[in-house]
Amino acid sequence: MVIVKIPATTANLGPGFDCLGLALNLYNYVSLEKSKEFKIEIMGEGREDISKDQGNIVYQCIQAVVKKAYEKKGFQERRNKRKEYQKNIFKKEDFKTLHITLTNNIPPARGLGSSSSALVGGALGANYLLGSPLSHGELLKIMTEIEGHPDNILPALFGGLLVSTQLEDGEILWSKTKVNPQWRYVVVIPDFQLTTDKSRSALPKNIPFKDAAFNLGRISLVMEGFLKEDISLLGKVMDDRIHEPYRRELVPGLKEILKTLRRERYPVALSGAGPTVMAIVESEEEGEGLGKRMQEIFLQYEVTSSVKVLSPNNNGAEVLSSTAIEPLIKK
């Protein structure tokens, strides 16, 4: 049995559309163990909505990892020589009848990287049970092929702030920056789901040249703000013209929240595809107050929401030893 702990993520950070992501200390857990019959058990967030059949993305990712490992030259011969894996070794057929337990604290379809956390948990768990034949780069390629883009996968895997791009041949280039552990990230989570597909469908096929230039200048300064730990700079440059203007109609109250907080120079942005809104502050107390203000604005548009004040995660996903899974759900 293996358990993988995976952090939530917030992507884009304003102008960094599909290329910036940051890990937060809210966690999902993926548990994999041998079983005579295939079963997916879900606890916590999404237990009523997430698929429990073989179409589940965790299961699909696991199968892709197993397939890639067995295609790797010399894989079986090398693994058979490693005595530490002989007792609890997982064979190819064991992965068809897994008992998968998903313990979720990250709400699905809210813009906090729930699908990426599922992929990372499945990929790392399967790779561990196989004897770790695949590199992080190989796992990343598999996950990106399923997800479509790596901006949430990378921070969930490695922690910190990740900037990335994908070359035409499929190679993914990325760079990690550890972020100030004292900063806090206020996430205000509306009580409705917004799928990535629906959120992306609101985007135009083309954008004006001036809007592209607007974002290019700002994304450079967003990176500068994190590198120099300059939150006041972030408050001036975390706006966007590529995706947020087109997604505002999907999230009632979003336009007012962004306008109000940016006028006061708070670093604030739509988290990923939304509908969650994320703001950066310097203390827990400031975060709680700001979260309540954002909630009140949402209520003016008849949107109820919850608030979490989170610290960043600079370490990424972890493979844990076998333990009881139920206590891992945050009350």
Automatic annotation (TrEMBL):
GO biological process terms, semicolon-separated: threonine biosynthetic process
Record-annotated GHMP kinase C-terminal domain positions: 223-296
EC number annotated for this UniProt entry: 2.7.1.39
Keywords of the record: Amino-acid biosynthesis, ATP-binding, Cytoplasm, Kinase, Nucleotide-binding, Threonine biosynthesis, Transferase
Domain of life the protein comes from: Bacteria
Functional pathway: Amino-acid biosynthesis; L-threonine biosynthesis; L-threonine from L-aspartate: step 4/5
Record's keyword annotation contains Calcium: no
One Gene Ontology molecular-function label: homoserine kinase activity
Chief site of localization: cytoplasm
Domain GHMP kinase N-terminal: 90-160
Binding site for ATP: 107-117
One annotated Gene Ontology cellular component of this protein: cytoplasm
Substrates-to-products reaction catalysed: L-homoserine + ATP = O-phospho-L-homoserine + ADP + H(+)
Cellular location(s): Cytoplasm
Family the entry assigns: Belongs to the GHMP kinase family. Homoserine kinase subfamily.
Function: Catalyzes the ATP-dependent phosphorylation of L-homoserine to L-homoserine phosphate.
PANTHER family given in the database record: HOMOSERINE KINASE, HOMOSERINE/4-DIPHOSPHOCYTIDYL-2-C-METHYL-D-ERYTHRITOL KINASE
Protein name according to UniProt: Homoserine kinase
Organism classification: Bacteria, Bacillati, Bacillota, Clostridia, Eubacteriales
